[in-house]
Amino acid sequence: MNTSAGTTARLLGAGLRALLVLTVLCGVLYPLAVTGAAQALFPGKANGSEVTVDGEVVGSRLIGQRYDLPAKDGQETPEPDLTWFQPRPSNGLGTNSVNTRYELILSGATNRSGDNAELIRRVTEAKAAVVRDNSVPGHPVDPADVPADAVTSSASGLDPHISPAYAQLQARRVAARNDLPVARVEKLVQDHTEGRTLGFVGEPRVDVLALNTALRELVEGAAAP
After folding, report:
1. Distances, alpha carbon 28 to alpha carbons 22, 23, 35, 37, 208, in Å
2. Does one domain contain both 17 and 40?
3. How many domains does the chain have?
4. Is residue 96's pLDDT more than 70?
5. Which of 60, 88, 97, 174 has the most CB atoms at less than 10 Å from its CB?
6. Coil, helix or strand for 198?
7. Residue 62 sits in which domain range?
């Protein structure tokens, strides 16, 4: 009986010592080493790939954000500020946890099939809004020209990029709202279009934050005396 109790005590002691050592190694020393290496070698990426303008952090290269007008009293979802290029929809996840604001706490796809009634309704409404918002006098938007990323969210719901086609579709509206030449805004889109990674991975894309940052500089430059 005493031998059995002693063996149990030794095993418990060994287990507790192993737990303590592994906790220190894996829970303290390893995270500190990885964090230190990341801060030393890739400080920008380690700190969230922050984008800074005039000394102020305005966003991240990895996370999309909306450009909206201030919400009115009783308004759940504010209207988009059409002076800016707009990102793709951020709707993700299921009906009970829809991410409409690029909130980092919610990330995921809707996982709805192509014939899902809710998905069809949402896409139809989004397409009508894109056509309405981006049509300018003399240049109505053809619904057939609305790209898929203008009316659907990405798999994560946090994509910071849009397609060059969606950016170009918005160019006339952005030019009109900011009293800028259309050709100048279209050139801005071309200058901020990124090619495929390594020349063959993925699709050409436009970072909305970088594009709007350049747009702000263009507007301020045009307004300067």
Report:
1. 9, 7, 11, 14, 38
2. yes
3. 2
4. no
5. 174
6. coil
7. 50-223
